[in-house]
# Entry
Amino acid sequence: MSGLIGAPLPGAVSCRARHLIGIAASAALLAACGPGGNPQGGGAPGGAPPPPEVGVVTVWERPTRVIVTAAFLLGAALYRSYSTGASAAWATDAGWAWVALGVVGLVQLTVVVRRRLR
# Structure
């Protein structure tokens, strides 16, 4: 980013400008969406009440995500000096663990929702 005369702006000023632009864009989006968060208007069509809660706990709730993330971060930190690619391998394995547990959680949720909708 450069100044009006072509001289580079100091890093702190350009960083602050980017933050202000991001805040302004977020505020404009929030203003456009309104309190309901939906640009087309809040609420269900025809004023219908919201659907009841499903009330199911899946394998991929917050405690599991925290434990899996902490375990893989610890493993990556402990084995980083073991070999050059060990941390990358731990990070890749963590990603696959997230995907696998997310899929299992989605299947659990889908089964319960389908049963409740019948």
Observations:
- The chain has a mean pLDDT of 76.
- The helical segments are 11-33, 62-78, 86-117.
- The radius of gyration is 23 Å.
